[in-house]
Amino acid sequence: MIHKTINDMARCQMVLATDLDGTFLGGTDADRDALYDWIRTHRATVGLVFVSGRDPAFIEGLCSDGRVPWPDFVVGDVGTTIAQMKDRKVAPITALEDEIAQTWGDRGARVRAALDGHPGLALQPTPFRYRVSYDMDPDTFDDRATGIVDELDADVLISDNRFFDVLPRGISKGPSLLRLVDHLGVAQTRVLAAGDTLNDLSMLVAGTPAVAVGGAEQMLLDALPDAPQIHRAQAIGAAGIMEAVAHFSLHPAMERA
User: Fold this and answer.
1) Contact at 8 Å (CB) between 118 and 145?
2) Exposed, middle or buried: residue 145 (CB in 10 Å: 0-12, 13-18, 19+)?
3) pLDDT grade for 2, boundaries at 50, 70 and 90
4) To pair with 10 at 20 to 30 A between CA atoms, which of 44, 136, 177, 243?
């Protein structure tokens, strides 16, 4: 089985919903391989969802060499893509994206025009569907950009002090993950959300068990509430995910991993 169906996901013992950079892809080579091998060994009972700022082409390329496990579903583009994997391709789920598309409307062209040449912002060349993203230079950035975006009835998300994302109002990783989880019929108590930067905040406070992995951005740690369902891991990246699975007792095989 390359990718799980909706029914397969509903039968899983747990579902890992994980950010990529710094989280699923973070830590040492040995830590990453340990997590990936554990997932492959228990793939029948562990669902995998990538929740990332990355676009579909990146995800398809990332998994093509066989080292990184293929996800079953994807919440990509900072929550503006909700998709199922089919034949190793990211296939958007139209029913879950309709609201995103309607909320975004024609804002892409308007945002690019309004922020053209804005100090400290360099437009990323990827042709995103329902977002506009910039590389941000914090030393030259003019924060009036936030007000410009607000006047366009869109949201700004700044993460890692170097990315400036313009998103449909109310759309981010957390709401899109919950929309997907509801679609899959998976109980939120069986979903582990994992992240490391401020753009992961909305999914770490969405109500599922959650982990900010070791090495997480301080701004994320400062923003997280103290709550029993949120774990601040000591272990870095992939090892922090393993730590959280054990912490929350999400899978009976973890003690034998």
Assistant:
1) yes
2) buried
3) confident
4) 243
